[in-house]
Design a protein that fits this description.
Elements lengths: L1 H12 L12 H12 L7 E8 L7 H16 L4 E4 L3 E2 L5 E8 L6 H4 L1 H13 L3 E7 H35 L2 H25 L9 H29 L4 H28 L7 H22 L1 H9 L9 H7 L6 H12 L1 H16 L7 E2 L11 H12 L5 E8 L5 H15 L14 E2 L5 E8 L6 H17 L7 E6 H35 L2 H26 L5 H4 L7 E2 L2 H29 L4 H30 L5 H33 L14 E4 L6 E4 L6
Subcellular location: Cell membrane
Main location: membrane
Organism: Streptomyces luomodiensis
């Protein structure tokens, strides 16, 4: 009922999408707001590009004949408002037919198909020429067809893959299906609730993908915590309901604590004071909260209802494999270095992680753009040809000015002076004359100034700096004018600078609240400090892997991408917060098991051995699921999701293998009884025979220091 209600309410309310024009920061953000305030009636623009099939010089007569054919075809379409005169490229290699569509830009992708069909027919009708279409609707549709298909494939693969891994873990179909069922119901519910929340905080397009990633990760994790503990208690001879109650008391408590730490970590993104991060934080918090709610209500209820049917139908070989009794010899061998030589193991493993983190010191950040997409995508190839022939259609700086209506004449004169100043300057494009646009109320004026360089080129950034220096000078005699320069290059530069300023606040918040949460839960400053340090270590190592892979070219063929020599600017902060949250899942679960053993009176070394060995199955299974799901995202075309998938997969792998097998046990063994300082373990009372009688008397064991 809850899931159905979330879907219904989310569908009824609809999604309030984040307006990219109004979501920027610093000067580019101001430019977007100035443009939006002008309420310009912007129509979807399409460009039909005619080039020689050979890529050489264009036969002008044949090209003009094709242009007339394209014009006739477009004129007859109901979706087209007007068709402009053909524009020849300065290099003589292309002819451009501008087409203006009717309607709104937002739904142009769904209405552009008839135009694309006519362009394709014109291309077939004129052999020797290449006729293709690039514009608002066609580019959006091309991206949707390519990247949208990527995500559909990722979603279709991730669920069966997760189910297959869980089948190996549990050896029974129903037990394997329960975590997937919980995770999917959390994802669907969270998407409905996220649509509701978008009317308070507008939603970015990446939220649904982040909800899928986070929902599958924590939903499966929390179910594994429960199911593994319930099965362990049944093995010890507990009844089915008693086993569920013990699982609820132990694993259920861990789920609540883990969920709280993830939510606390994600809340740190609000301190970035940027609408995209606020949207991602909201979606993540919602899906984690739903996963926690489902884990402490629906999951135990479902297990109680299923009874022993949870272990049916059994997969013969896998069932025998999962039900083997006795301690795992593998884990005994793996933990031996940390338990016998803790200081040496700690130094070597921490040194290895720090070595892996070294490349992160050379991290370079940049906002993702079309130049980061695979050049195998047809619409990207067409865009490259368009910008090669008409540079002003590529990288554009948007100059925006707002002033009182009676100063409109002065503003237009100032902008024409600015345009004239760019003449002959190699930093700017000169294939078309920039046009000053005026809003209906005469208060807002804009002009697009092109540069022949790709956004990632330093010369494009240089042209932005020059324009930002010239604009105030041009408006010197318009005292009431408010001006700014925006556009792709400006947004990237401003966003990166903004993040560099806000990152210490976000990181500090996450570290402080994580420390406080762990200190309160375990009543131990040592556990709190070690949790923060170990998570910082694994995050730094994963950043090192990210830089080593994506800022260099050696992995291009392996992962099918073109290196830009940078990391997506929003990724390090988001990755840090997500990793801190997800890593705390493992940390809380493992340390809770170690503390349980210590409470029962075991020595530090035995507590560490037994705690990690008993939790190894859950942690390993959860890590395999996460790494598998995140790795799928590493196969997508969009570089930001490719980097996100690889970064998360590397971090989880390092966390589950190096941190949990070597660093954590070595550190806790080396610390000894100081692990639980100052609160102690809260050792449980033990029953001893009463003198002269048969009734037991409770004696409390001394607390560890």
């Amino acid at each position: 009922m809850f899931v159905a209600l979330c879907i219904f309410l989310g569908g009824a309310a609809g999604t309030n999408k984040l307006d990219s024009e109004e979501s920027g920061v610093r000067e580019s953000g101001r430019a977007g707001k100035i443009v939006a305030s002008g309420d310009f009636p912007e129509k979807p623009e399409e460009n039909v590009l005619i080039t020689a099939e050979s890529g050489g010089r264009l036969d002008r007569t044949a090209a003009l004949r094709a242009a007339r054919d394209v014009t006739g075809r477009m004129d007859k379409l109901s979706e087209v408002e007007s068709v402009g005169d053909p524009v020849p490229a300065p290099n003589g290699k292309a002819l451009l037919v501008p087409v203006t569509m009717k309607g709104d830009k937002d739904d142009a992708a769904s209405r552009v198909v008839p135009l694309l069909d006519e362009t394709a027919e014109a291309d077939e009708a004129h052999p020797g020429l290449k006729i293709e279409q690039v514009g608002t609707g066609s580019t959006a549709k091309g991206m949707q067809d390519t990247i949208g298909e990527d995500f559909k494939r990722a979603e279709l693969i991730s669920v069966p893959l997760t189910l297959l891994i869980l089948l190996v873990v549990f050896g029974a179909i129903i037990a394997a299906g329960v975590p997937v069922l919980l995770a999917l119901s959390c994802v669907v519910s969270a998407m409905g609730l996220s649509a509701l929340a978008s009317h308070v905080l507008p939603e970015t397009s990446a939220v649904s993908n982040v909800i899928l990633l986070m929902g599958m990760a924590v939903g499966v994790d929390y179910s594994l915590f429960y199911l593994k503990r319930e099965r362990e208690e049944r093995r010890k001879g507990k009844s089915h309901l008693d086993a569920i109650e013990i699982a609820a008391e132990t694993s259920g408590h861990t789920v609540v604590v883990s969920g709280t730490t993830v939510i606390v970590a994600m809340a740190g993104l609000y301190l970035a004071q940027e609408s995209t991060f606020a949207s991602l934080a909201t979606g993540s918090i919602i899906v984690v909260a739903v996963a926690v709610l489902g884990s402490v209500t629906v999951l135990p209820a479902l297990l109680a209802k299923l009874g022993r049917w949870v272990d049916r139908p059994r997969v013969p070989f896998l069932w025998r494999l999962t039900m083997r009794s006795g301690e795992s010899r593998t884990w005994q061998v793996l933990l031996r270095p940390a338990l016998l030589r803790p200081v040496l193991t700690l130094v070597v493993s921490v040194g290895a992680l720090l070595l892996l983190a070294l490349p992160a010191l050379d991290m370079k950040l940049k906002q993702p753009g079309q130049d980061d997409l695979s050049r195998d995508i047809p619409v990207v190839q067409a865009t490259d040809r368009l910008t090669d022939a008409f540079p002003s259609e590529g990288t554009v700086h948007k100059v925006a000015v707002r002033a009182p209506a009676d100063e409109a004449g002065q503003v237009k004169a100032a902008l024409r002076e600015l345009i004239a100043r760019t003449d002959g300057n190699s930093l700017f494009a000169h294939d078309q004359q920039p046009v000053v646009k005026e809003s209906g109320n005469h208060r807002v004026h804009t002009v697009d100034v092109g540069t022949p360089y790709a956004p990632k080129n330093p010369r494009a950034t240089e042209s932005l700096e020059v324009l930002r220096e010239w604009l105030p000078q041009a408006l010197d005699e318009v005292p009431d004018a408010e001006s700014a320069v925006g556009g792709t290059v400006a947004q990237s530069a401003d966003f990166t600078t903004h993040l560099e300023e806000r990152m210490p606040w976000v990181v500090g918040f996450v570290l402080l609240l994580t420390f406080a949460t762990m200190a309160v839960i375990f009543r131990s400053l040592a556990v709190a400090v070690s949790a923060v340090l170990l998570n910082l270590l694994s995050a730094a190592a994963s950043f090192g892997v990210l830089v080593a892979v994506f800022q260099h070219t050696w992995a291009e063929g392996l992962l099918d991408f073109d290196s830009t020599g940078t990391v997506v600017s929003w990724l390090p902060l988001f990755l840090f917060v997500v990793l801190f949250g997800l890593s705390m899942d493992y940390h809380v679960f493992v340390v809770s098991r170690i503390r349980e053993m210590a409470q029962e009176g075991a020595s530090v070394k035995d507590s560490v051995r037994e705690g990690i060995t008993r939790s190894a199955g859950v942690v390993t299974s959860a890590a395999i699921v996460m790494v598998a799901v995140f790795s799928i995202f590493g196969t997508l075309n969009a570089v930001e999701f490719k980097q996100l998938g690889v970064g998360l997969a590397a971090a989880i792998l390092l966390d589950a293998v190096v941190i949990r097998i070597f660093v954590l046990p070595a550190l806790m063994t080396a610390l000894g009884s100081w692990n639980w300082w100052p609160g102690g373990t809260g050792r449980r009372p033990s029953a001893v025979p009463a003198p002269g009688g048969n009734e037991p008397e409770t004696a409390t064991a001394a607390k560890a220091p």
